[in-house]
Amino acid sequence: MIISILGCGWYGMALGKALLKQGFLVKGSTTSVEKIESLSDEGLLPYLVQISADSEHFDAEFFQCDVLVISIPPRFRKGETADYLPKIRNISKAIEKYGITKVIYINSTGVYGDHNSEVNELSDPAPDTESGKILLEAEKLLQSQASFKTTILRFGGLVGPERHPGRFFAGKKDIPNGRAPVNLIHLHDCVGLSVAIFEQSAFGYVFNACSPHHPPKAAFYRQAALQAGFTAPEFIDELTSWKIVNSINITAVLHYQFVADNWPDIYK
Known about the structure:
Elements: E1 2-6, H1 10-21, E2 25-30, H2 36-41, E3 45-48, E4 50-51, E5 56-57, E6 67-70, H3 84-97, E7 102-108, E8 117-119, H4 130-143, E9 149-155, E10 157-159, E11 184-186, H5 187-200, E12 206-209, H6 217-227, E13 243-245, H7 249-254, H8 263-266
Parallel strand pairs: 1-2, 1-6, 2-3, 6-7, 7-9, 8-13, 9-12, 10-11
Antiparallel strand pairs: 4-5
């Protein structure tokens, strides 16, 4: 099986290395000429792929694959709000043009609004931010295409190597909503879930990818900061808007067991 990963950043590179160990042929893309060598050094077949709302530059060979993983998080803070959906639309056209039949789209639990409730894959996402609304539209765009099957993998907040949660709020004070539950996922489980999708050919599904453990923000980030040697943050003891993101499909379809299913075991 040939797998192309569109976007070999923090997660994409880790996934590519894991898939190589499973015996897959893996193509990886970057938008930077400087990263081509690093992809090659890790054993991926490197490609320069640049697709935007109004232009594209790539080697067609990259899209000659059995499965395409789309891992290009939007840069909303850098002004990509209006351009993200057109970019996804252009990627969708390339998928159809080159006959790819299976797609994994890496998205975010940000598609769910903070409506003070627990949600799963059967819940109406009801996003309450502009970015969440755009991400949900991107999902719908890919799912509506009849020529290929798309699995949606919604990651919670990302933690792991180079993303130690202890530094996120280290030393800060009066942080609001200290009793709100966290919805996080470790890189080990990001990769593990993705590999499980390939191994079980679980295409056409939606998976909420969060650890099943949702401690309060104050307790979690305080412990993580102290474990990493940072100054503990101080949260306001309150519960305002919140959500708990659960999954029924990860258990029912993938039968996957989380590595990070109890955060004190990871950051202690």
